[in-house]
Amino acid sequence: MLTETKAAAALGLFDGVHLGHKSVLEKAVGYKCRGFVPACFTFNNDSLENKQLRKIQYIYSHEQKCRYIRECGIEDIYSFDFEAIRTLAPSEFVKMILVDKMNCAAVVCGEDFKFGFNACADVHELMRLCKTYDIECRVVSQIELDGLRISSAAVRSALSLGDIAKAKSLLGRDFSIVGTVFCDHRKGTKMGIPTLNLKTSAPLRLGVYASNVAIDGRIYKSITNVGKRPTFYDNSDIVVETHILDFDKNLYDCEVEVVFDGFIRDEKRFDSASELIEQIERDIETLRLF
Description:
By secondary structure, the chain is α/β, with parallel strands linked by helices. 29% of the residues lie in helices and 28% in strands. The radius of gyration is 22 Å and the shape is elongated. The N and C termini lie far apart (53 Å).
């Protein structure tokens, strides 16, 4: 359904909403002074699993991504199902999505934006097609940080190395995981080290991290293990387990945000639970020095 107000839309997947993405989003917001509603075209994470024949390891959940997009000043987010539009020709994408669905008067994208069936069209084709409908098209150049091109791939690389400081500099914010605490097998509780369990798709290096958790306006130091828990399981899914220091409240089914401070050590398999407990106690002492 066509909206009454014209939109100025940022176009992209925006995984990570890093500094490069923010530059695109903020330029779309800049059109608000001309009476256009700042909007964003993106995809639902669950509908797009592969890109260029590679499985995407999303930096954030779709909900967390949208939260950061809105923090940039975007008012309307159009989250499309990839399968529903992936076969559209470039001209169909512009007419059916940008014109008919979003009522765009202006669009903003990065210089590597691709669209249409099999990503066959680039920004030059976008500018040509937008001109047909009198849509202003603005292409934003990629930016660098210390000689490194800012991209989602660069953020993923930093996370996979456990380089939280580098990821933070590329994102322009602390790296964190937001999720609902779920009840697992309560092994941490049985060992006297209760944990908050979260799920993530982020390509984090498996291991132990210094972290923080905000609860009721107060920041608590915490220690977080991201891994497959090899001491207890042979082939577990990756789970984020966070132990909050000096805290004993039950947070099951609560939404929490775990903010990562730095990498402490790689995950490893121990011969017994008692050896694991001893190592965690040493990790906690290390954490208190952060």
